[in-house]
Amino acid sequence: MTTPPQVGDLAPDFTLPNEAGEMVSLSQFRGKRVILYFYPKDDTPGCTSQACGFRDAYPVIEEKNAVVIGISPDSTKSHARFKTKHNLPFILLADEQHSVAEAYGVWGEKSMMGKKYMGVIRSHFVIDEEGRIAQAEVKVSPADSVKRALMALQ
């Protein structure tokens, strides 16, 4: 597992397909702040609560010259359903090969009911207007992720 980027580091750039299949690059958002969050799976309880937390806070996030980008290994089709079902106003990117999760150091070993497997470690990174990491939260709960990201935008 790669070490996650630290505060002050340049955020690793990437290009991934969004829920509509259009290619989106992190560098497109220079000049804005970005809450980049990684989550394990569309439409699961924790991931839904995290996504809906960012959705509910979106007007405040936009006021702070920021956008939200969610990334998981799910397909663009799965993202499109998840986004529509929960009325999410932000971009969801499909990292099916988990290369971006690996670049951010959030692809690692997890365990559920004693079974070990590889997956996304829930986390978020707040990236400043110049593309540098302003906050890095790895292994964060869904509710804490939203609260801490909002505090970082103050």
Explain this structure to me?
With 154 residues, this protein is α/β, with parallel strands linked by helices. It is built from 5 helices and 9 strands. The chain has one domain (30-153): Glutaredoxin, CATH 3.40.30. It has helices spanning 45-56, 58-63, 76-85, 99-103, 142-153; strands at residues 15-17, 23-25, 33-38, 66-72, 91-94, 107-112, 115-120, 123-127, 133-138. It has a 5-stranded mixed beta sheet. A two-stranded antiparallel sheet has the order 1-2. Strands 6-7 form a two-stranded antiparallel ribbon. Strand 4 (66-72), helix 3 and strand 5 form a beta-alpha-beta unit. The model has no long low-confidence stretch (mean pLDDT 95).
List the helices and strands and how they pair.
Layout: E1 15-17, E2 23-25, E3 33-38, H1 45-56, H2 58-63, E4 66-72, H3 76-85, E5 91-94, H4 99-103, E6 107-112, E7 115-120, E8 123-127, E9 133-138, H5 142-153
Parallel strand pairs: 3-4, 4-5
Antiparallel strand pairs: 1-2, 3-8, 6-7, 8-9
